[in-house]
């Protein structure tokens, strides 16, 4: 919850495979403490995941260079996510876009009170989330993964105000993240963003994905 008190909820490859089979559109694997622990990228995990999935997946955490990102794509990922390294050196976004294509570059933004934080939410970088999203687009990002630290893990709904502000500032697809608790929350997020990320509510019950998709459809939101 709010990036604190992390819990082990299972093997990422097994969970990823289960979500793929249950009808997820895409998967996102984030090593959220890779920067704090100065860990390398998840190349071996990506190889294992790629053998099991039939849907696109993004990998983030510890990507500090275009070479890091390229290794992940060569291992089987479809997109790479960057966060702290891009904040420290925004030129990295352009380097990734030029090497890999914008379609493979996801800029992850973690925000609290509308302000950007880095290093798994532990550091304030003195930037407004909307302004940073706009700059990320200008530098070549293909998608924005926006996580509200305030809502993360609460299951009380996404931060719709923040999400709408960021989505309105860019022409890129925006993935809303943080706060999903039920189908109504997902439907609300899809009213202002192009995608909604689900995590803890599914990790504890992966079979929930299929019924959740149907509930979202019943609320009038078209999903594939």
CATH architectural category:
Alpha-Beta Barrel
Q: What series of H and E elements makes up the topology? A: HEHEHEHHEEEHEHEHEHH
Overall pLDDT confidence: 91
* Structural class label: alpha/beta
N-C termini distance: 29 Å
Beta-strand content bin: 15-25%
The CATH topology label is TIM Barrel
DSSP summary: helix tally: 10
Low-confidence stretches: none
Could you give the topology of this structure?
Elements: H1 12-22, E1 27-30, H2 43-50, E2 57-60, H3 66-75, E3 79-82, H4 84-88, H5 91-100, E4 105-112, E5 115-118, E6 123-128, H6 129-138, E7 143-148, H7 160-169, E8 174-177, H8 183-190, E9 195-196, H9 200-203, H10 208-218
Parallel strand pairs: 1-2, 2-3, 3-4, 4-7, 7-8, 8-9
Antiparallel strand pairs: 4-5, 5-6
Helix pairs in contact: 6-7, 8-10
């Amino acid at each position: 919850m709010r990036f604190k008190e992390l819990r082990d909820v299972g093997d990422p490859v097994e969970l990823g495979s289960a979500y793929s089979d249950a009808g997820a559109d895409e998967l996102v694997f984030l090593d959220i403490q890779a920067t704090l622990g100065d860990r390398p990228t998840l190349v071996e995990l990506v190889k294992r995941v790629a053998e099991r999935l039939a849907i696109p997946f993004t990998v983030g955490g510890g990507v500090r260079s275009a070479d890091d990102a390229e290794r992940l794509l060569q291992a089987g990922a479809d997109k790479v996510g960057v966060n702290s390294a891009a904040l420290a050196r925004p030129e990295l976004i352009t380097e990734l876009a030029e090497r890999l294509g914008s379609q493979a570059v996801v800029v992850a933004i973690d925000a609290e009170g509308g302000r950007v934080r880095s290093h798994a939410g532990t550091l304030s970088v003195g930037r407004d989330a909307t302004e940073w999203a706009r700059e990320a687009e200008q530098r070549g990002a293909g998608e924005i993964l926006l996580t509200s630290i305030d809502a993360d893990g609460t299951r009380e709904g996404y931060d719709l105000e923040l999400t709408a502000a960021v989505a309105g500032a860019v022409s890129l697809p925006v993935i809303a993240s943080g706060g999903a608790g039920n189908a109504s929350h997902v439907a609300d997020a899809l009213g202002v963003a192009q995608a909604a990320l689900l995590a803890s509510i599914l990790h504890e019950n992966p079979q929930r994905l299929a019924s959740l998709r149907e509930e979202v459809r019943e609320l009038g939101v078209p999903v594939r």
